[in-house]
Amino acid sequence: MSLSITLTLNGATRAVALDDMRVTLLDLLRERLAMPGTKKGCDRGQCGACTVLVNGKRVNSCLTLAATLDGAEITTIEGLAKGEALHPVQEAFIKADGFQCGYCTPGQIMSAVGLIAEGRAGDDPERIREGMSGNICRCAAYHGITRAVQEATR
Ligand code: FES
């Protein structure tokens, strides 16, 4: 069985033929759509490294079947900057040292973008930590990540 879906990926319409109904959005992005910025950590919904926006909402792309996304609008880390101009959340992560090794950073940033869009960020560190709790950082750069979200919310 095969299925054709059409996505809007970072503003561009993409038609995709799926031969395997089990392919995840994460694998589709990385292996077929040349979007390696979205990272694979646990591949089971526990680390948040694979976070992207689907129709403006944060999702773990490793848990999202591509076959369910016909007509969806997907935003990945590659879609945030406008030319040379970084997205304000990307700027805030740099300014606040919101990373160490950087592997989780695309997922952290996409989650922060989603959290701010949901109006759930604010300035309260505890509230930000709760809102970002689905994104694990093995370097434990949480203090900088929280400051980056505060910075981006201002
Ligand atoms: Fe998707 Fe870890 S790779 S949550």
UniProtKB/TrEMBL annotation:
GO MF annotation: an example: metal ion binding
Gene3D superfamilies: 3.10.20.30, [2Fe-2S]-binding domain
Domain 2Fe-2S ferredoxin-type as annotated: residue spans: 3-80
PROSITE patterns xrefs: 2FE2S_FER_1 (PS00197), 2FE2S_FER_2 (PS51085)
SUPFAM superfamilies to which the protein is assigned, alphabetical: 2Fe-2S ferredoxin-like, CO dehydrogenase ISP C-domain like
Domain of life: Bacteria
Keywords: 2Fe-2S, Iron, Iron-sulfur, Metal-binding, Oxidoreductase
InterPro entries: 2Fe-2S-bd (IPR002888), 2Fe-2S-bd_dom_sf (IPR036884), 2Fe-2S_ferredoxin-like_sf (IPR036010), 2Fe-2S_ferredoxin-type (IPR001041), 2Fe2S_fd_BS (IPR006058), Aldehyde_Oxdr_Iron-Sulfur (IPR052914), Beta-grasp_dom_sf (IPR012675)
PANTHER family for the chain: OXIDOREDUCTASE WITH IRON-SULFUR SUBUNIT, OXIDOREDUCTASE, IRON-SULPHUR BINDING SUBUNIT-RELATED-RELATED
Protein name as it appears in the record: (2Fe-2S)-binding protein
Species this chain originates from: Marinibacterium profundimaris
Lineage of origin: Bacteria, Pseudomonadati, Pseudomonadota, Alphaproteobacteria, Rhodobacterales
